[in-house]
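Tip: read the tokens left to right.
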């Protein structure tokens, strides 16, 4: 019984399944109906257009149907076959296509009871581009394959070109030159030794004041005797004594003349037609020589020689001038330089540089111009004449070029060549815009400071400082491998320079000027300049603001104090000021007019005469009221404002 019931249930289920499948097949085989919204033609066909107004009839409003038309029942929707194509298979008209678009119907009521109907087509669908299947049809097309390869090659070629171009720009672009470190003689200071004291006795003082080099003045008559045993022994002792403390030696020589015992002069007397004879300046006997005067003694510079000729002797008895324009004389000087450098000397200064060349055929000298002449002088005085035949002759630049190149070559760029006096006319010592010496002595800075505290001394000092550096900066300097660029001035002063400005104040003011301080040792020892202050100044000289910074000189608002600044971008600036006034009152000075200096200064060093209460190292002072004692100096740092 249970088995028959179970079989009957299975048959019923199978029957239901078969019936459902049959109905599904029949539904698929029957044509489907699709609908669309009425378009404009259908609306017009029923008596309405897009702006038809429906008015009330018999006092009643005729309500439109939901789709907004006045169609009869059954006409709101029209049966379509397929995708809007008529059963006859004809192509759809433009109106039929328009009828298939979506229509937005808007009812707009008005105040008088009318209703306006707006019908708008919905916005067209945005362009979506080609599908993946459509794009793949062109994947293997030869044209597109070649185009893809071309673009691929171009991309990597351009990328490689840009990479190579960047390497080339990095390689070929102008490099920012690294600041050239200062050489030992540029760092300074250079101390002049006392020739009457033993070298060893002066060593502790030289070391205490941190001198980078010492200057020994060789007796003038020994200039061309440096290869003799006596002079060689003295020079070796000099070099070895200071070499133990790594202090370099500089020697001053006087190359203008030789003594009567010199071998070159003796050869000139004996051989009138020799090269040795042309190394001196002669006048035939019986002829009146020019009116040239002696530098060292009164009277004529011409002396009778044993050969019955007149020979030029400007520097005293038995000293005969060399004409260094001649090869024999020039070779003699070069041999002397080589001998000095070979014995360990690392710097040479030449005395009487303006006299090294002479016009051997020159005539009488002319007097000085009345505007330039000293009215107290007469024709028997050396200063009365112009001396154009014996000083600043053309060719000095070429002579110095040979000598400075020799010094640099013999010392591998470590040594230097300079002079012992103010060159006055730097253009004479230049060749093609290059000054042919390493450390010229130029300018009136020392002479101005000697004048003391006149009413315009600060203004004049500023003018001469600016003029000296402006003039000398117009020249390049011979590259030596140990410092190059613009000429590095010698800043020389001695005890005579301290008549109006004490040693401490002079030293504080001088040490940060662009150049190397050069002074006798007794300037510091007798002037009670402390070694601590000199050590501090040397630390300042080692900073970028000093070694590579800009320099500008100023006076205060009343032009009664002189100051200058040293500044390199990215570093603190240095402000150095000297009060030359000798009044007993403390005075403040206004330097706020200095461009970019800021409003405050931080004091880092004061001179011995500085006695302003509550002002010392690390004290901040306003730039528009810098306090200074009479005859005192101060160094401060500042942060530039731009």
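Filled-in amino acids:
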């Amino acid at each position: 019984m249970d088995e028959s019931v179970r079989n009957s249930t299975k048959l019923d289920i199978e029957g239901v399944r078969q019936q459902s499948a049959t109905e599904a097949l029949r539904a698929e085989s029957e044509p489907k109906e699709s609908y669309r919204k009425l378009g404009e033609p259908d609306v017009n066909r029923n008596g309405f257009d897009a702006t038809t107004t429906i008015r009330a009839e018999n006092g009643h409003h005729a309500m439109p149907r939901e789709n907004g038309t006045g169609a009869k029942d059954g006409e709101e929707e029209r049966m379509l076959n397929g995708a809007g194509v008529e059963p006859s298979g004809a192509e759809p008209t433009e109106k039929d296509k328009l009828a298939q678009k979506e229509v937005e119907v808007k009812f707009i009521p008005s105040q008088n009871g009318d209703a306006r109907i707006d019908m708008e087509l919905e916005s067209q669908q945005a362009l979506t581009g080609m599908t993946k299947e459509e794009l793949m049809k062109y994947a293997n097309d030869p044209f597109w394959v070649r185009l893809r390869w071309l673009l691929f090659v171009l991309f990597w070629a351009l990328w490689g070109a840009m990479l190579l171009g960047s390497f080339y720009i990095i390689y070929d672009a102008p490099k920012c030159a690294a600041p050239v470190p200062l050489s030992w003689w540029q760092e300074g200071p250079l101390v002049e030794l006392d020739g009457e004291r033993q070298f060893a006795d002066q060593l502790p003082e030289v070391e205490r004041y941190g001198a980078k080099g010492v200057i020994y003045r060789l007796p003038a008559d020994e200039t061309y005797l440096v290869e003799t045993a006596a002079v060689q022994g003295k020079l070796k002792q000099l070099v070895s004594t200071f070499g133990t403390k790594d202090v370099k030696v500089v020697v001053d020589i006087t190359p203008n003349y030789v003594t009567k015992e010199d071998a070159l002069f003796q050869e000139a007397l004996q051989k009138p037609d020799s090269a040795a004879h042309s190394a001196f300046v002669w006048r035939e006997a019986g002829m009146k020589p020019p009116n040239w005067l002696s530098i060292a003694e009164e009277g004529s510079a011409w002396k009778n020689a044993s050969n019955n000729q007149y020979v030029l002797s400007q520097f005293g008895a038995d000293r005969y001038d060399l004409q260094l324009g001649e090869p024999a004389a020039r070779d003699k000087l070069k041999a002397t330089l080589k001998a000095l450098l070979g014995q360990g000397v690392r710097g040479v200064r030449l005395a009487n540089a303006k006299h090294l060349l002479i016009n051997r055929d020159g005539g009488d000298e002319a007097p000085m111009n009345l505007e330039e002449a000293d009215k107290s002088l007469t024709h028997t005085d050396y200063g009365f004449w112009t001396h154009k035949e014996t000083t600043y002759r053309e060719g000095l630049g070429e002579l110095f070029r040979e000598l400075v190149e020799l010094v640099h070559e013999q010392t591998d760029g470590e040594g230097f060549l300079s002079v012992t006096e103010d060159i006055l006319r730097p253009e004479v010592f230049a060749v093609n815009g290059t000054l042919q010496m390493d450390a010229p002595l130029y300018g009136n800075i020392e002479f101005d400071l000697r004048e003391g505290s006149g009413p315009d001394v600060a203004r004049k000092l500023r003018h001469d400082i600016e003029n000296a550096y402006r003039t000398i900066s117009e020249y390049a300097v011979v590259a030596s491998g140990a410092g190059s660029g613009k000429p590095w001035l010698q800043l020389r002063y001695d005890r005579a320079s301290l008549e109006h400005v004490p040693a401490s104040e002079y030293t504080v003011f001088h040490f940060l000027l662009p150049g190397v301080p050069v002074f006798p040792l007794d300037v510091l020892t007798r002037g009670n300049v402390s070694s601590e202050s000199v050590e501090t100044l040397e630390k300042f000289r080692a900073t970028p603001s000093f070694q590579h910074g800009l320099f500008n000189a100023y006076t205060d608002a009343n032009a009664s104090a002189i100051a200058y600044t040293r500044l390199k971008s990215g570093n603190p600036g240095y402000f150095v000021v000297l009060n030359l006034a000798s009044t007993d009152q403390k005075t403040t000075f206004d330097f706020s007019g200095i461009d970019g200096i800021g409003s405050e200064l931080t004091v880092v060093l004061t001179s011995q005469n500085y006695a302003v209460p509550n002002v010392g190292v690390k004290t901040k002072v306003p730039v528009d009221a810098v306090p200074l004692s009479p005859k005192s100096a101060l160094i401060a740092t500042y942060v530039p404002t731009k």
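DSSP finds 18 helices and 29 strands in the chain. The longest strand covers residues 103-109.
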